[in-house]
């Protein structure tokens, strides 16, 4: 079944190629396509395109379909082009000609725009929640190990004293900024494209404000041409937000892989969280963090894939956009899995609390020694030269008693401030609004 069929069969090879992976990927969009249809038929009933008794039948059937779409057995039948065709076909089979009326005033172009936005909105909520959980874990670890010192590095050379409190807290604050970028993407996603039809509106007196309210969007894409232009732009903006978050996870994973090596020995994982070698019995490999790094580096390439697919297209719809689904939709599950497994592994991580007992780290404290001389009134450059001389001549004695008090330093991690920063970012997501709207759409009573 094809919604555009006019009695001419399409060449089988062309059909296979043009359908691509739509049947597989559109299953992810099925519940959202049905939600969009519930809002759409409610709106077209309000402007007289269908009767109230017809609306009642359609809402009942669509809600049954929504429940079915959540089950494992739901599928897009062979010969059916996409989820839009599948839903309309199932309604027509159940309700006869009434099922054919649901497409009045819309196009598959604005249907897929809407489906992708509803899907992305729901997925972003999950990603925000998982990011918040991981940030909370990192803040807990930061507080737990705030007194445990570790080397800080520049150029991979030992530089100054750091601490596990600083290290864990740094990644927590990075996630807070990543949430701010996700919030900007959320605002772009949370605009209603429904009613833009094929990208040029409709001669029907559609009430786009009504569908915006019914679906819990903040606002709508007002200009119908721009609504269509949003295909690709929305995905690109979301993917850039993903790339920021993935970069944080990748850097954390890189640190852990480095710190787990025997040359460092700063952290370790329980044996059951590591993997072995087929020939080296001693190996305990950090495969989990290597794979997090690999997946997250792949996600960081997503904006460029989407840009290359969409950036050379003029306004209007083109089938190239179908290819974006193949790289965009799977990225959500990849990122959610990386967030979950990072949180799990970080919770299990063991910390070496005696790293700086090794004399090879004594030079970490040269800046402390310089600063102590400065406090006594010696000019900084003279103090610097004196400590340099002591190091060169083997006279340097590290002053290991530290007193760092400024904001964000070893003795003042500002964890409460980072929590506030995180909460401030979380408060920008109005998840309750769209949850309530969807709940109302799915109720049997009048919307």
Structure at a glance:
It contains 15 helices and six strands. It is mainly α. The radius of gyration is 28 Å and the shape is elongated.
Task: Provide an overview of this structure.
This protein is mostly helical. The chain has 2 domains: 12-103, Orthogonal Bundle (Fumarase C, Chain B, domain 1); 108-357 and 414-442, Fumarase C, Chain A, domain 2 (Up-down Bundle). The protein has helices spanning 12-19, 22-46, 52-69, 83-95, 108-144, 164-189, 208-214, 224-260, 287-300, 302-310, 321-348, 366-375, 380-392, 415-426, 431-442, and strands at residues 149-154, 157-163, 191-192, 219-220, 267-268, 350-351. The strands form 3 sheets. It has a two-stranded antiparallel ribbon with strand order 1-2. Strand 1 (149-154) and strand 2 form a beta hairpin. Helix 2 runs antiparallel to helix 3 (52-69) and helix 5 (108-144) packs antiparallel against helix 6. The two termini are 31 Å apart.
């Amino acid at each position: 079944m094809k919604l555009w069929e006019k009695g001419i069969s399409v060449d089988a090879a062309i059909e296979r190629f043009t359908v691509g992976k739509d049947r597989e990927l559109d299953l992810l969009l099925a519940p959202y396509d049905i939600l969009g249809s519930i809002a759409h038929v409610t709106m077209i009933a309000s402007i007289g395109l269908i009767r109230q008794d017809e609306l009642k039948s359609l809402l009942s059937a669509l809600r049954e379909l929504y429940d079915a779409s959540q089950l494992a057995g739901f599928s897009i039948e062979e010969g059916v082009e996409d989820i839009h065709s599948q839903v309309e076909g199932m309604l027509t089979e159940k309700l006869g000609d009434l099922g054919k009326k649901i497409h009045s005033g819309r196009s598959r172009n604005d249907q897929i725009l809407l489906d992708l936005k509803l899907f992305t909105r729901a997925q972003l909520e999950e990603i925000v929640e998982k990011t918040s959980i991981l940030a909370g874990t990192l803040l807990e670890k930061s507080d737990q190990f705030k007194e445990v010192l570790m080397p800080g590095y520049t150029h991979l050379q030992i530089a100054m004293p750091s601490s596990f409190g600083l290290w864990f807290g740094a990644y927590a604050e990075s996630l807070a900024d990543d949430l701010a970028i996700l919030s900007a993407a959320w605002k772009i996603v949370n605009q209603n494209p429904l009613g833009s039809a094929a990208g040029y509106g409709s001669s029907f007196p559609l009430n786009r404000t009504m569908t915006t309210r019914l679906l819990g969007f903040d606002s709508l894409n007002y200009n119908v041409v721009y609504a269509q232009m949003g295909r690709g732009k929305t995905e690109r903006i979301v993917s850039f937000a993903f790339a920021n978050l993935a970069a944080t996870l990748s850097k954390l994973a890189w640190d852990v892989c480095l710190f787990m090596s025997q040359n460092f020995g700063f952290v370790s994982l329980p044996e059951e969280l590591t993997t072995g070698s087929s020939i080296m019995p001693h190996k305990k490999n950090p495969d989990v963090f290597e794979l997090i790094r690999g997946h997250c580096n792949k996600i960081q390439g997503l904006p460029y894939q989407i840009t290359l697919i969409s950036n050379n297209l003029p306004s209007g719809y083109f089938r190239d956009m179908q290819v974006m689904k193949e790289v965009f939709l799977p990225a959500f599950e990849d990122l959610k899995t990386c967030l979950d497994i990072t949180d799990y592994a970080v919770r299990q991580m063991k910390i070496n609390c005696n790293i700086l007992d090794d004399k090879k780290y004594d030079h970490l404290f040269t800046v402390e020694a310089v600063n102590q001389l400065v406090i006594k009134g010696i000019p900084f450059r003279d103090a610097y030269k004196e400590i340099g001389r002591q190091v060169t001549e083997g006279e340097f004695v590290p002053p290991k008693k530290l007193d760092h008090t400024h904001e964000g330093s070893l003795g003042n991690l500002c964890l409460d401030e980072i929590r506030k920063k995180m909460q401030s970012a979380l408060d920008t997501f109005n998840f309750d609004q769209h949850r309530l709207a969807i709940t109302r759409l799915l109720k049997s009573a009048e919307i």
